[in-house]
Amino acid sequence: MPIRNSFAERHADITAWRRHLHTIPELQFDLPKTSAFVAEKLRSFGITDITTGIAETGIVAVIEGRGNGSGRTIGLRADMDALPIHEATGVDYASTHPGKMHACGHDGHTAILLGAAQYLNETRNFDGRVVLIFQPAEEGGGGGKVMCDEGLMERWGIDEVYGLHNAPEYPVGEFAIREGALLAAVDFFDIVLTGKGGHAAAPHEAIDTNLAAAHVVVALQSIASRNVDPLKQVVVSTCVIRSDNDAHNVIPQTVLLRGTVRTLDTGVRDLAENRLTEIVTHTARAYGCSADIQYDRGYPVTMNHAAETVHAADAADAISPGVDRNTSPIMAGEDFSYMLEERPGAYIMLGNGGGAMVHHPQYNFNDDAIPAGCSWFAELVERRLPLKG
Fold it and tell me: If 0-12 CB within 10 Å is exposed, 13-18 middle and 19+ buried, where does residue 250 land?
């Protein structure tokens, strides 16, 4: 694998950064230790144009190339936050923050961008500007949207934006990407069914919310099987069923259903929301219950732009030949989608080489992927902002 020599030489240092970040996982926007570490590393590289406090704990840093000034600016993004999971890896650099864990590899993403930043600042082998984006709150907080709302693209004049995510399902150091929808839009629902509580021995005197809830859960699966074009993707998952009762002999007054809807198409997203509302309302009514529905739209589809997907794939091919340029979409969500709504760009998957999947207590980022990730960022910048002559 043609990794740049500088990253092979610095692999141990970047790995040490990653493992330090792994010991101090922090959640959403509350990243004081993580943000301070990143800022300190950027300063140690000699980078002086550093802005902290974007989206509370986000960081934006700028590196000027040594060309004549093309006027072009490329944004490179890494997410920094962890997950509320108890770690079970057993590694000697495990989380020191109980109940918090880097179970999605954001420690790896951050270390990779730091490694690329060090190289780009030393070589400046490009004509234009690189904007380094270290983002908080990808895991449910929408930090990418907050950064955009605070003027990220306009304030730093970003023309294109790129990011990466590790993928345990791919061999270490290999890349995968696709034009268009790569990751799903993610919506959430909370449904409260209200009936009439009563004694389990006299169900005819009650209105059984559990019965209604069971039929609602089953009926919601008809959205995928009977409402959406079978060539398009939708996932409807009811993940919580909770009543106001835990006794063996009481029919509950209310039942909460909570879950998620994931789609790759705007029309399907609208259809799924409308059908969920109709199905829940009428199914509940059929069993004598009322339904209160809260439906919240989360991250939009992560939509890779056509030309930028080619640029990202070509840079990856220079690092690890044989890039999968038409990988299957993933029904997980990603708030890099907000950045791609504001500027052309692309998101690429970097092989993590097996092991536990992300969001699992035994997941661990594979440090062998670091040189490939750093090399991709560097290669992409030098291709998109070439020096003249």
Answer: middle
Check if the beta carbon of residue 50 is closer than 8 Å to that of residue 39. yes
What mean pLDDT comes out for the span 166-182?
Answer: 97
In angstroms, the CA 77 to CA 148 distance is 12
Cα Rg of the chain (Å, integer): 24
Contact in structure between 37 and 107 (CB atoms under 8 Å) = no
* Residue linked to tokens 């910048």: 381
- Amino acid (1-letter code) at residue 354: G
- pLDDT tens readout for residues 36-77: 999 999 999 999 999 999 999 999 999 999 977 778 999 999
**Residue 201 in tokens:** 């021995």
* Nearest-angstrom CA–CA distance, 160 and 144: 15
Residues 330 and 183: beta-carbon distance below 8 Å: yes
Query: Mapping DSSP to helix (H, G, I), strand (E, B) and coil, where does residue 20 land?
Result: helix
Tens-digit pLDDT profile for residues 213-241: 999 999 999 999 999 999 999 999 999 99
CA-closest candidate to residue 270, choices 240, 227, 304, 221: 227
Q: What is the DSSP letter of 25?
A: -
Question: How much of the chain exceeds pLDDT 90, in percent?
Answer: 96
CA 336 to each of CA 138, 179, 212: distance values in angstroms, whole numbers, following the listed order:
8, 15, 38
Cα separation, 244 vs 253, in Å, equals 7
Domains of the chain with bracketed CATH: 5-183+301-384 (3.40.630.10), 185-297 (3.30.70.360)
Of residues 309, 297, 88, the one with CA closest to residue 178: 309
Q: Quote the tokens at residue 300.
A: 């939009």
